[in-house]
Task: inverse folding
């Protein structure tokens, strides 16, 4: 669906403040994929995702969306921004409509939908994120923090994107609301078969939901693969200042203590299965 090839980007180019932020980045996004984009602060994650819908233009390299080069002179970037939705941190701070429905309709209307088409899309997306008809004509500022976040996400979804890029979508939320937001994101992915690119500092969230992980370090893509492939490289991740999921650390210590597990686990369910297998093999339980 999307292919990034040899992307390079420099802030303040040809000035005394020049700073290379991205260096030779290449990866692809497939339909329905859930990608976790991780890296320490300053690694270039937010800069990279701004290239995915054309908010920034690379110094060199190419971004292809559905086989088309988005840097071609004839390519219409507004079309790309409809197809690749970008949700920044604290998206509820971007709410401004007089009503919930008006706010969610804003994006679709600006992309050329008729009023009827925009309202139909907005209502479908509000239902998808759990905001019922009773809230349509309520001010978004009267909602709870979690509801505001859901309305903001609905506003992006109403533009019918094929890729949803999210920068720390659960930042600042309490654990229960955070869980609700991530379950919502996973529901959206499965319901609409859209690809998700998630930027997060919380490794447990990435390990739980992502099926592919990209690791940025000092502007370079230093590691990519399945969630299991990436998070079992614990020594390398720690060397570049990254955390690993807590369950990975726990099972790593069990292995070091002599428990015959094949590799550190990346999820609680995986750890449970490994421990149960060890117990069965030792005859401790049926």
Result:
């Amino acid at each position: 669906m999307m292919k990034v090839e040899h992307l390079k980007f420099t802030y303040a180019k040809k000035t005394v403040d020049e700073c290379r932020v991205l260096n030779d980045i290449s990866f692809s996004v497939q339909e329905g994929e859930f990608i976790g984009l991780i890296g320490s602060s300053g690694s270039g994650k937010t800069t990279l995702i701004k290239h995915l819908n054309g908010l920034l233009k690379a110094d060199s390299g190419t971004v292809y969306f559905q086989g088309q080069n988005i840097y071609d002179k004839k390519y219409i970037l507004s079309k790309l921004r409809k197809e690749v939705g970008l949700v920044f941190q604290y998206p509820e701070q971007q709410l401004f409509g007089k009503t919930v429905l008006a706010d969610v309709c804003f994006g679709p209307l600006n992309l050329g939908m008729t009023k009827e088409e925009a309202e139909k899309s907005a209502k479908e997306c509000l239902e998808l994120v759990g905001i019922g008809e009773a809230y349509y004509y309520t001010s978004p500022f009267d909602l709870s923090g979690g509801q505001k976040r859901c309305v903001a996400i609905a506003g992006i979804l109403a533009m019918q994107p094929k890729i949803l890029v999210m920068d720390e979508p659960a930042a600042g939320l309490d654990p229960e609301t955070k869980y609700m937001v991530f379950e919502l994101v996973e529901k959206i992915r499965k319901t609409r078969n859209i690809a998700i690119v998630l930027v997060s500092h919380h490794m447990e969230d990435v390990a739980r939901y992502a099926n592919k992980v990209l690791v940025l370090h000092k502007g370079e893509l230093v590691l990519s693969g399945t969630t299991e492939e990436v998070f079992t490289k614990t020594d390398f991740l720690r060397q570049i200042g990254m955390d690993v999921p807590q369950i990975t650390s726990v099972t790593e210590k069990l292995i070091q203590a002599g428990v015959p597990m094949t590799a550190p686990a990346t999820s609680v369910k995986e750890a449970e299965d490994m421990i149960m297998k060890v117990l069965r093999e030792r005859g401790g339980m049926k």
